[in-house]
Every structure is written in structure tokens, then in C-alpha cells.
Amino acid sequence: MLDLAIIGGGPAGLTAGLYSTRGGLKNVVMFEMGMPGGQITGSSEIENYPGQGQVMTGMDLMASWPEQCQKFGLKHEMAQVETIIQTGSTFKILTNDNREFEARSVLMATGSVPRRAGFKGEDEFFGRGVSTCATCDGFFYRGKEVAVIGGGDSALEEAYYLSKMCSKVYLVHRRDTYRAAPSTIEHIKKTENIEEVTNVSVEEVFGDASGVTGLKVKCNKTGEIRDLPTPGVFVFVGRNVLNAPLKQSDGSFLCDLSATGEVVVDLKMRTSVKGLWAAGDIRIDAAKQVVCAAADGATAAVDIIEYLG
Ligand code: NAP
User: Fold this and answer.
1) Does residue 256 carry a catalytic annotation?
2) Domain with 103 in it: what CATH number?
3) Which of 12, 61, 65, 244 could form a disulfide with 280 if both were Cys (CB 3.0 to 4.6 A apart)?
4) Which of UniProt's keywords are assigned here (predicted)?
């Protein structure tokens, strides 16, 4: 029987792993299918993690976190959790490789995945010119033109990153104001090889057997159509939370969710179900910052230790 099962190995899950094991829990397992670190490892430049003055990649920021947790006894299971089932006062954790674990408490820290924008050709060319990760795929477009779609922090930060290796970046946004931090917007405005293509709808991404050859956009005011001649299209239009492990066989969810699928929690990260906590981007009102996810994980772990006595 596990004391605590942590579902997800991003900043929230890893910090909960650190605090719970260092706080005395003996049998704590973190379930993470891929490499621990979370979605932030796909970010190219982090400049707002407190105490880390120099700009660094998400991969570099997270590199030492797993080892620090393992030092205190956190175990890592490389498996995807398919379902969490409540059985009396404990929980069953079912994994995609048909294993079953039992836990006295569970922390959901699964975060989110990139959302698709829904334009024509997006699915067809995904992985063949359409990408949601500039650090992973930017290299393929060195010296070439690319388009970035979106108007939030992710789109603007990644557009800026791509501008350093690509000949030109079209920043394509459906409105003429951005949601990103003012300092990031300033970087964009000052960068000569970024062209802002605002107030447009993406009509389609087109190409041939070799991949993407361009992006068709339509001006929202005039209806004018423009083709952007780019072999790379990066989509950053927000994220969807990963709440699937909470879904039960009858279609209901194990605990209360918001209308958009985030887990409802209180200030201690407790969900509506006793013994179940949620932390990081999966929870309601998450600020979606690494430092906040880490803080959530610590808050939950402190409460879990008290709960287990
Ligand atoms: P976001 O803030 O939700 O922005 C998504 C952008 O995509 C918006 O500009 C939105 O347009 C646009 N969009 C949404 N659906 C679209 C569609 N179907 N077609 C075209 N455009 C579409 O998402 P995000 O940038 O991924 O950021 C998520 C959260 O993480 C935010 O809270 C952000 O602050 C945070 N974040 C922080 C940092 C940092 O602090 N360094 C870095 C990255 C992310 P509208 O504006 O018109 O709605």
C-alpha cells in the first residue's frame, strides 16, 4: 500500500514528492510516463523563476529536480495512469500497462497539453511542419521563415526564441492586442525579423507530400486573403487540462470539476473527495507558472502528511 500516489511529474508533482518524502512519508510513488520535468521542459526561455537570474531553458531549469526528490526516497513509475478509483478510504491506481496500485492518498498533478487551434490542415500536417514545441522543432527551420499562431505568453516567447534562428517569424494573432506580459510584448516589438500579422483568422495550412509550404490567413476587417510562404507553423493557442484519470466507468468524474474541466480545490489543494488532492495547472484558478505549481505541490504535501498522521 502506497502512502501517496502522485500522478504527474511536472513542478507540482516533483515538489510534492520532495516535501512528502522529506517530511517523512515512506512509500511515495510518482507516476510519470515520460521524463520528469513537465510541460515547462518544452519552453525555450525562462526568466521569471525566482532566484534564477540568468535566462535558461525549461529543460535546464528542471534538470536537477528529480534527483533532489529521489535523494529523499521518491520512487518514479514510468507508467501512464488510466484511472483512479476510490475503494472505501483508499484508492486504486490503474496504469496503461495493466498494473494496479493501492494508495492511502492521491495527488493529481497531471497539468495540461497543447490545444489545437482547429484550422484546416492542422491535423494533417501535424509533425510534418505543424508543431507545438519550438525548442524541439525550431532547429529544422534554421535560416527559414516560420509562422507562430497565438497571442499569449507562450506564442510571444516562442516567437522571440524562433526569431534568433529563423530568417523571419510571422506572429499570427486573431486580435490586435496580446495577453502576454508587457516585457515580452516589448521584446517582440523591438525584434526586426518578427512581423506581426494581427486581426486575422487562419484559413488553412497547406503543403504537399514533403510537408507544409504555407499558411493562408484572412483579414478580419477587410476579408483580404494572404498566403505566408512558410514551411513551419508553430501553434500556441492555450492548453487543455489532463483530467482523464479521474473519469469513472459510468462517465462521471471522481471529484468536482469546473465547467472547463479543472479540478475544484480549496486553499490546501484538497478536492471534493477525502484523500484526493490536486495541484498545478490541473486545478481551478491556477496562475500557470512554474513557481505556483511548485508551491501547490508543497501545500498539498504538507496537508497530506498531516492527513496520514
Ligand atoms: P493563453 O494565455 O490562453 O493564450 C492563448 C492565445 O491563443 C490567445 O491569444 C488566444 O487568442 C489564442 N487562441 C486561442 N484559441 C485560438 C484559436 N482557435 N485560433 C487562434 N488563436 C487562438 O495560452 P498560453 O500562451 O499557452 O499561456 C497559458 C498560461 O500560461 C497563461 O496563464 C500564461 O500567462 C502562462 N504562461 C506563462 C509564461 C511565463 O510566465 N513566462 C510562459 C508561458 C505561459 P485571444 O487572445 O483572442 O483569446
Assistant:
1) no
2) 3.50.50.60
3) 12
4) Disulfide bond, FAD, Flavoprotein, NADP, Oxidoreductase, Redox-active center
In terms of domains, do 214 and 246 share one? no
143 and 211 housed in the same domain = yes
User: Is the same domain home to 198 and 247?
Assistant: no
- Where is the domain boundary, 206, 235, 264? 235
The answer as to whether 121 is a domain residue is no
The pTM is what? 0.87
E strands present in the chain: 2-7, 28-31, 75-77, 81-87, 90-95, 100-108, 112-114, 130-131, 145-149, 168-172, 194-197, 200-208, 211-219, 225-228, 232-235, 239-241, 276-278
Grid cell digits, residue 270: 484538497
Residues 136, 176, 256, 266: which is the catalytic one?
136
Is residue 153 in a domain? yes
User: Does residue 284 lie in a domain region?
Assistant: yes
Three-class DSSP category at 3:
strand
Q: Do 251 and 182 have their domain in common?
A: no
Residue 259 Cα, ligand 1 centroid: separation in angstroms? 19
Per DSSP, the chain holds a count of helices (H) and strands (E) of 7, 17
Looking at the domain assignment, is residue 203 inside a domain?
yes
Who lines ligand 1 at CB under 6 A? 48, 117-118, 149-155, 157, 174-175, 179, 236-239, 288-289
Query: What domain range includes position 167?
Result: 130-235
Question: pLDDT 10s digit of each residue in the chain, 309 long?
Answer: 999 999 999 999 999 999 999 999 999 999 999 999 999 998 888 989 999 999 999 999 999 999 999 999 999 999 999 999 999 999 999 999 999 999 999 999 999 999 999 999 999 999 999 999 998 899 999 999 999 999 999 999 999 999 999 999 999 999 999 999 999 999 999 999 999 999 999 999 999 999 999 999 999 999 999 999 999 999 999 999 999 999 999 999 999 999 999 999 999 999 999 999 999 999 999 999 999 999 999 999 999 999 999
Q: What is the rounded distance in angstroms from the CA atom of residue 185 to the CA atom of residue 151?
A: 10
